[in-house]
Specification:
By secondary structure, the protein is of the alpha+beta class. Helices cover about 40% and strands about 25% of the residues. It is built from twelve helices and 22 strands. The longest helix is centred in the C-terminal third of the chain and has 33 residues, at about 385-420. It starts with a helix and ends with a strand.
Length: about 450
């Protein structure tokens, strides 16, 4: 049966098809100008140019590079954010990487922005907002990829930021205060995911640690007994962390994956400084803190065993993602109309992490996947190979979901909000994440 909503969604798809080349050009041009988090000036400029073209006023410079525009409906109602991420990550060997920074869009954020801009084009040009109860926010957000940690910690120490990722900073600054729920679409590929689209109910969160073992240098051939080997302390720490793995509950999905970033200075000198980094991931905030405590205990024990010091700097990563089940049903129906219902898949819990998880702790959020790429995430073979599925289908899905949520006096959006129970308030969220920041210097020489 044809309804007004069905007619509006047909108009949206027609409008997006009409702007198909423009949408693809946005995605491909961003692919060729990748920028790292909190540095996405060119990408943000592209977003602003598109907003200007469709007649949307905007705020910019949000959390350094974020851009937000609002399309207001004819009646009062909930505010829905459609989101896309501005940043790339570091994959220097990618064929379309920036030769200076090593940045590359090897995760599909360029497709997110293209889809977001396509939705903005269609929803403004068709005038459908006149029939909606509520507002649509088009939000290009910075710095989802958790890279260049030292640079971002530096921004915090300089007072330029409070947190290390874009959505965390935007939450703190109040740019989500007027938003009731948020939707975005992430790219995937047939090599990674079955079907053409799908949703995992949840994903891991994490925190990050920078670690320095501080020993004592000495000539490794003549006076090794006068040194304190920081590398051996690091090796003991890795073994102690591995020995903790059977203490983690299976249902908590704990993942700890440390690397040594500095193993010493010269081969003939006992290593006096050895540096490590690690993420501590888990399915719940409490499981993250429990695993973090055990990692710290292993680091201190290794320092004590070797008689050296260890500096442990802990910074907040992302909280676990909670996909809203009712938003998931709307996505399933809407994306199914674009790509075929038979191509939908329910995915298992994901061990990866995203700062959409932070947002999902305080409001209904949806972070599904749609194919269109080739290769594997964060690797050199990644690209948006199928432009129709990678750029156009997400634009149509985002725009049609907004119509579904805000048509019929926003009945679906209001229903979701009436049933949603946030895991924490904004104040509780900020207190929890801020409390993770900690630097400890443990003296194992005593």
């Amino acid at each position: 049966m044809m309804t007004e909503s069905t007619t509006w969604k047909s108009e949206i798809c027609t409008a997006i098809d009409r702007r198909r080349d423009d949408i693809i050009n946005i995605g491909e041009s961003i692919m060729d100008t990748p920028e790292l988090g909190f540095k996405e000036t060119q990408t943000a400029e592209r977003v602003k140019q598109t907003f200007d073209q469709v007649g949307l006023s905007f705020e910019d410079g949000l959390a350094i590079t974020g851009v937000k525009a609002v399309l207001r409906g004819a009646k009062e109602g909930p505010t829905i954010a459609l989101m896309g991420e501005l940043d790339a990550l570091q994959v220097p060997d990618h064929p379309r990487a920036d030769p200076t920074s090593g940045a590359a869009h090897a995760c599909g954020h360029n497709a997110q922005i293209a889809g977001l801009m396509g939705a903005a084009m269609a929803l403004t040009e068709t005038g459908i907002a006149e029939h909606l109860a509520g507002n649509i926010v088009f939000f290009a957000v910075p710095a989802e990829e958790y890279v260049e940690i030292n640079y971002r910690v530096g921004l915090v120490k300089e007072g330029k930021n409070t947190f290390l990722t874009g959505k965390q900073e935007l939450i703190k600054l109040g740019h989500f205060d007027e938003i009731d729920m948020a939707v975005m679409i992430h790219s995937t590929s047939p090599e990674v995911s079955e079907g053409s689209m799908g949703i995992a109910p949840s994903s891991n969160g994490f925190l990050a640690k920078n670690i320095r073992f501080l020993g004592k240098a000495s000539h490794a051939g003549i006076f090794p007994e006068r040194g304190v080997n920081a590398l051996y302390a690091a090796q003991l720490a890795l073994s102690a962390i591995n020995a903790q793995r059977e203490t983690f509950r299976d249902q908590d999905c704990v993942r700890i994956h440390p690397i040594i970033t500095k193993g010493g200075d010269l081969v003939n000198i006992i290593p006096a400084e050895v540096c490590m980094e690690t993420y501590v991931r888990a399915k719940t905030p409490d499981a993250i803190l429990d695993a973090s405590h055990k990692v710290d205990r292993a680091l201190r024990g290794a320092a004590m065993a070797m008689g050296c010091k260890v500096e442990i700097e802990t910074v907040p990563g992302n909280l676990p993602l909670r996909n809203d089940p009712e938003l998931a049903e709307i996505f399933r129906d809407t994306a199914g109309a674009v790509l075929g219902e038979e191509n939908y898949r329910d995915y298992p819990h994901s061990g990866g992490s995203t700062d959409a998880g932070d947002l999902s702790q305080i409001m209904p959020v949806l972070h599904p996947m749609m194919t269109g790429a080739a290769g594997a995430h964060h690797q050199i073979d990644w690209c948006i190979a199928d432009h129709e599925r990678g750029y156009i289908a997400p634009a149509k899905t985002l725009a049609m979901m907004a119509v579904d949520l805000l048509s019929n006096d926003a009945a679906k959006a209001k229903g979701i909000l009436s049933k949603n129970s946030p895991a924490m308030s904004k104040a509780e969220y900020l207190e929890r994440q801020t409390s993770v920041f900690r630097t400890e210097l443990y003296d194992g020489t005593k």
